[in-house]
Specification:
This protein is an all-alpha fold. It is built from one helix and no strands.
């Protein structure tokens, strides 16, 4: 009769160990599922961030090409302005010469 309490204690202990192991396995599975969900969310966020970075990069490249076109236009305008300034100086010199010749003719 001394064996009955020991057997009941052993069965209860075994039952407790099995329950603990089973609950631990469930918790591990739940944690893994949560981690997988977090990883999927992180992967989606990374894809969105990459798409946004690609858009920013494309916009930057377009802006860079626009700036190059503007710089070329400014250089062309500067060359034209130099030519106009030289022509204007020449025209004023001719006007001054004509004034002097008119003064000489009047005298």
């Amino acid at each position: 009769m001394n064996y009955i309490p020991w057997v009941i204690s052993g069965i209860a202990t075994l039952f407790a160990i099995l329950t603990y192991a089973r609950n631990g396995h469930r918790d591990n599975m739940k944690d893994r599922a949560e981690q997988m969900a977090k990883m999927e969310n992180l992967a989606e966020a990374m894809i969105k961030a990459n798409l946004k970075l690609d858009t920013v990069c494309a916009t930057t490249n377009e802006t860079r090409s626009d700036i190059k076109v503007l710089n070329n236009s400014i250089i062309a305008i500067d060359k034209r302005l130099s030519v106009v300034e030289n022509d204007l100086k020449t025209a004023f010199m001719r006007i001054d010469e004509l004034r002097e010749s008119i003064k000489e003719v009047k005298e």
